[in-house]
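Batch queue: ligand-bound targets. Current item pairs a single chain with N-acetyl-L-glutamyl 5-phosphate. No template structures supplied; prediction is de novo from sequence plus SMILES. Inputs echoed for audit trail.
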Amino acid sequence: MNVMILKVGGSVLAKLPQSFYETVVQLKLSGLCEPIIVHGGGPEINHALEQLNVESSFVKGLRKTTQEVLDVAEMVMSGSINKQIVTKLGKVGGTALGLSGVDCSLLKVSPVDPSGALGFVGQVEQVNTDWLKLIMNNGGIPVISPIGIDESGQRYNVNGDMAAAAVAQSLQGKLILISDIPGVMEDIDGKSIIHSELTKTQIEKMILSGVIYGGMIPKVRSALKGLSGGVKESIILNGLTPIDLANYIAGKQVGTKVIIEKEAHYA
Ligand SMILES: Nc1ncnc2c1ncn2[C@@H]1O[C@H](COP(=O)(O)OP(=O)(O)O)[C@@H](O)[C@H]1O
Ligand SMILES: CC(=O)N[C@@H](CCC(=O)OP(=O)(O)O)C(=O)O
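Prediction returned. Tokens below.
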């Protein structure tokens, strides 16, 4: 099965044009690959928390998650956002099935920080691929909200990029991280450049120096972790110009490709 996991960040969800959903449905109908959407919803959760006067903060791109924050994150992502995506795919001729990591224990998780300092923030230990295959084999496009569950039935908030990488790893697919930037950027000699390719060593340096910060940290780390677990390709693409996805599918160079290390070339 040739699977493409498209992670759509909350940063671009509201801005994605209909052509994005058409491309996803076209991928499915053409048989070119099996698309799976994993979504985030960071800004939308922020908005809901503000309205409810609930404080929240981030540590290295991960939201500290109390029970109250978890309930809001689940309401926003597994409810509103997930169903909006399913509806949009349906409008352009797709059959999508929305589910969260809680449904059929799709995403089995453990706490990211066993000390409890981050609260209910989970990392994926196991993906129930049988259910994903069942949906895909019946013509469906799975749309996954990143709320996970542990052995005891406790729910956890999972970063969307981490959830997408775990799904990509479990199906040995391609991982496409769609966000609101053209790729990983850096200011060099007063000019902003987009890195077309980045290795693990370069990425770790850029995190240390602060060039990569905030939500980009779990994104690049998930891209790397996926690759070491058998993900075929990890790439960060711009969702604000959805032609990037079409160009990527056409084999053109776009966004930032994350690689483990460059192959050594001997003279
Ligand atoms: N070096 C970098 N290049 C591009 N964006 C970066 C970089 N470092 C941090 N960022 C930030 O990461 C953000 C994308 O992460 P995030 O907000 O979590 O997006 P999403 O909701 O799509 O997952 C960008 O909007 C930008 O503010
Ligand atoms: C643990 C954790 O940080 N969870 C994220 C889940 C949403 C997410 O990842 O959204 P983006 O893809 O838009 O960043 C959060 O609460 O914001």
